[in-house]
């Protein structure tokens, strides 16, 4: 067999593998789509695959969803859109600035200062709550302010012990994603509840949920953007420094335009995490600012899971991210995200 024939057979095998993987990937989406157009009897009566061939499609699940019988669909969709876009944008902006600082500047944090912060924070909270008669909210705030002030002041002294550098700080950020999310969600709920007793309502509010998602997304943004900033040529920034250009103008005027591909990719990834997040929305919302994952999870009744309603709600939650993925793929094909892929 000739080399040309072998190459031809290899292409056919590659095409067959791609088609098989495409079928494997898209079949769940197809199944969700056709299930949303089935009646309850059509779902429990056995598997059917092709509309108008082996089952008659129905719009009952969609009419119940869009009419509000299955929950406040429009309010939930708007809340997911507002919180998702704003939290992803804020996390990308703040995380990018932090990542740039960790790449271009040298930071040193004394380990003993970190120990002082932890000891003062926990000890101050326990003293304020158990001995001074303060409520949990004020005791937590006072302890945090005192611990942060003493840690910053002690970092300027010549303290014994190891010194943590930029790589250690980055590892600390990334390590925040190693904790089980339930720990952070429960802690935030307790903190928000105490803040509500002080007159600052954060449970079931835009500010409270957005703050949680920004904090939840910062580690992944810093991790992604740090690698991208390290790949940028530093010569352009050094030339601007020779002309006495301020650091903030270098970042926004030079670095950000050069980093657009990475910023777009990071924003898309962050939006996907926030859009699909369930646990924080379950703990920190009750009605007004509930997101689409909560709506999808609530599509059941006393009879059990109603898959026709779940499929309709899930399809609505999937479509916006599919559109985002299409936009991202177009940017990738045009070569805009070549630097981010590297």
Automatic annotation (TrEMBL):
A GO BP entry: transmembrane transport
Keyword Oxidoreductase in annotation: no
Subcellular location as annotated: Cell membrane
Topological type in the membrane: Multi-pass membrane protein
Keyword terms, alphabetized: Cell membrane, Membrane, Sugar transport, Transmembrane, Transmembrane helix, Transport
Membrane-spanning segments: 12-33, 77-102, 109-127, 169-193, 205-225, 263-287, 307-328
Family to which this protein belongs: Belongs to the binding-protein-dependent transport system permease family. MalFG subfamily.
Gene3D superfamilies: MetI-like
Species name: Phyllobacterium sophorae
Protein name per Swiss-Prot or TrEMBL: Maltose/maltodextrin transport system permease protein MalG
Pfam families documented for this protein: BPD_transp_1
GO cellular component: plasma membrane
PANTHER family with a match to the protein in the record: MALTOSE TRANSPORT SYSTEM PERMEASE-RELATED, MALTOSE_MALTODEXTRIN TRANSPORT SYSTEM PERMEASE PROTEIN MALG
Function: Part of the ABC transporter complex MalEFGK involved in maltose/maltodextrin import. Probably responsible for the translocation of the substrate across the membrane.
InterPro entries assigned: BP-dep_ABC_trans_perm, MetI-like, MetI-like_sf
PROSITE patterns: ABC_TM1 (PS50928)
């Amino acid at each position: 067999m000739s080399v040309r024939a072998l190459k031809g057979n290899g292409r056919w095998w590659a095409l067959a593998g791609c088609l098989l993987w495409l079928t494997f990937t898209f079949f769940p989406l197809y199944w969700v789509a056709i299930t949303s157009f089935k009646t309850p009897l059509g779902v429990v009566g056995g598997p059917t695959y092709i509309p108008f061939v082996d089952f008659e499609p129905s719009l009952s699940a969609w009419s119940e969803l869009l009419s509000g019988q299955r929950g406040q669909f429009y309010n939930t969709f708007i809340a997911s859109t507002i919180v998702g876009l704003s939290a992803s944008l804020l996390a990308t902006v703040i995380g990018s600035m932090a990542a740039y600082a960790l790449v271009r500047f040298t930071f040193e944090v004394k380990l003993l200062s970190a120990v002082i912060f932890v000891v003062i924070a926990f000890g101050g909270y326990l003293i304020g709550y158990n001995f001074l008669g303060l409520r949990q909210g004020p005791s937590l705030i006072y302890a945090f302010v005192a611990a942060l002030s003493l840690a910053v002041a002690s970092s300027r002294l010549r303290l014994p012990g190891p010194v943590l550098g930029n790589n250690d700080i980055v590892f600390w950020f990334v390590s925040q994603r190693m904790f089980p999310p339930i720990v952070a969600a429960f802690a935030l709920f307790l903190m928000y509840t105490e803040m509500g007793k002080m007159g600052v309502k954060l449970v079931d509010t835009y500010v409270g949920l957005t703050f949680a998602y920004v904090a939840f997304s910062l580690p992944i943004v810093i991790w992604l953007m740090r690698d991208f900033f390290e790949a940028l040529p530093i010569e352009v920034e050094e030339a601007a420094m020779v002309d006495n250009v301020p650091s903030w103008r270098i970042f926004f005027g030079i670095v950000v335009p050069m980093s657009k591909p990475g910023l777009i990719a990071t924003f898309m990834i962050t939006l996907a995490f926030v859009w699909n997040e369930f646990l924080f929305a379950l703990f920190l919302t009750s009605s007004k600012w509930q997101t689409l994952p909560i709506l999808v999870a609530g599509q059941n009744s006393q009879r059990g899971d109603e898959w026709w309603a779940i499929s309709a709600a899930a399809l609505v939650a999937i479509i916006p991210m599919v559109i985002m993925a299409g936009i991202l793929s177009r940017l990738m094909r045009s070569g805009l995200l070549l630097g981010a892929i590297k």
